[in-house]
Design goal:
By secondary structure, the protein is mostly helical. It is about 65% helix and about 5% strand. The chain folds into 3 domains: about 210 residues, no CATH class; about 80 residues, no CATH class; about 100 residues. The protein starts with a helix and ends with a helix. The structure holds zinc ion (ZN) (2 copies).
């Protein structure tokens, strides 16, 4: 086993923590078609790899890895599929990383056949085991931090997840090549990123725990932004305010009257501030048993609050829209976060999917004229208004449909 192979294996933990098939595909392609690449990993492999491709660099393996890579990139572009993927990919990644490492080593072994004695076995499988564990650890860490963003912004209205996903594609595609060009730099870089991820997760957990307070009556730890204890229903003196991302802050809510609505707007229970998991209007809180939108009065006020936001959102959207090209994306993110998100959080995905596509075609034509000075100022407000009308009517329809 050569040092270069080991360094490559250790470094591959980085790209494999992000994607399973993409780094495997790139590695196999490079090994098959660029002898220089192979010679970086091990000088002895070049001749062998060139005239006798192993199973790892065979046509059929390349084809399968290529297809799976394309599927993987496509799957990570949809917030819905990404959330499902998140649950399983931490098991797939270590397996593919180990297979890739063994694929590299297998080619090398052929080259060593004359010299190698039968000392193989445990000593050879140890690096593979370490790489598998490393990918699992870093992949779990990554999905934990990513899960924090998914919780905070399910539909990726802010676009952070989408941006992150593209960055990870670039990383998974270029990582196996950069590893050959700058092995030590890459190892250090992966170490730094792992350290940052550990800190980020620790901070998020500590923040979540700190925001909880003990119920004055029964002592259960409850969310600071809760109106009542989920267990004994004792009201909190003053609920704490809730952040843009739906977390409890340290200061008391400025408007106790509006507080339950604000909780629901961020998809939290209006009573105990526990997060709602499903995208339906009528659901029961898993912690305190509150039945969401069962009270028609609550639903009416919720929609009225939503309507009251419309004029301001339209004015601010117009200001964004008046800036040609540059103002479009922030404008769209702004109105989706403030106006659409409180309604869309409770409309099932299938329904939201059909709605989205109907509206998308209209928006395509609108966006083409956003660059026009002055007149372009109308584009984002029109998009906001159309979107709001569609989601509002879907919300109302489901409200009455499910109530029966
Ligand atoms: Zn209590
Ligand atoms: Zn509750």
């Amino acid at each position: 086993m050569q040092i270069a192979t080991l360094i490559f294996g250790a470094g591959s933990i980085g790209p494999f923590a992000s994607r399973a098939f993409v780094p495997a595909f790139i590695t196999a392609m490079m090994m098959r078609f660029t002898p220089q690449y192979v010679s970086f990993i091990s000088d002895d492999m070049v001749a062998v790899a060139a005239d006798a491709p192993g199973w790892f660099t065979s046509d059929i393996c390349l084809l399968i890895l290529g297809l799976l890579s394309a599927l993987e990139i496509a799957a990570t572009k949809s917030p819905d599929i990404r959330a499902v993927f998140q649950e399983v990919d931490k098991y797939i990644k270590p397996i593919v990383a180990v297979i890739t490492y063994m694929g590299i080593a297998s080619i090398q072994d052929i080259g060593f056949v004359q010299e190698a004695t039968q000392q193989a076995g445990f000593a050879d499988s140890l690096p593979a085991l370490m790489i598998g564990l490393g990918v699992f650890w870093l992949g779990t860490l990554r999905s934990g931090v990513l899960g924090f963003f998914i919780d905070a912004d399910e539909d990726d209205d802010v676009g952070v997840q989408g941006l992150f996903s593209w960055a990870e594609d670039v990383w998974a595609l270029s990582g196996p090549i950069l590893l050959i060009l700058f092995p030590i730099v890459m190892l250090v870089l992966i170490g730094i990123v792992a350290g940052i991820l550990v800190l980020a997760r620790k901070r998020a957990e500590a923040k979540e725990e700190r925001s909880k307070i003990a119920c004055t009556n029964c002592g259960e730890m409850i969310y600071g932004s809760a109106v009542q204890c989920f267990a004994c229903k004792t009201p909190t003196a003053v609920p704490r305010s809730i952040s843009f991302m739906g977390r409890s802050l340290d200061d008391p809510t400025p408007d106790p009257q509006a507080h339950p609505y604000k909780l629901v707007e961020k998809k939290h229970c209006p009573v105990c501030a526990t997060r709602f998991e499903t995208r339906v209007i009528h659901q029961t809180c898993g912690a305190c048993g509150h039945e969401l939108f069962k009270d028609p009065e609550f639903a009416n006020v919720y929609l009225a609050r939503s309507d009251a936001r419309l004029p301001i959102v339209l004015v601010v959207s117009a200001l964004f829209s008046l800036t040609p090209v540059v103002g479009l994306i922030p404008g769209v993110i702004y109105y989706r976060m403030t106006l659409i998100s409180p309604l869309r959080k409770y409309i099932p995905r299938s329904r939201a999917f059909l709605l989205r596509w109907g509206v998308r075609i209209l928006f395509f034509f609108l966006i083409m004229f956003q660059w026009v000075p002055v007149a372009g100022g109308l584009v984002v407000p029109i998009m906001a208004l159309v979107n709001y009308t569609v989601y509002r009517s879907a919300f109302k329809a489901m409200l009455s449909l499910e109530a029966e």
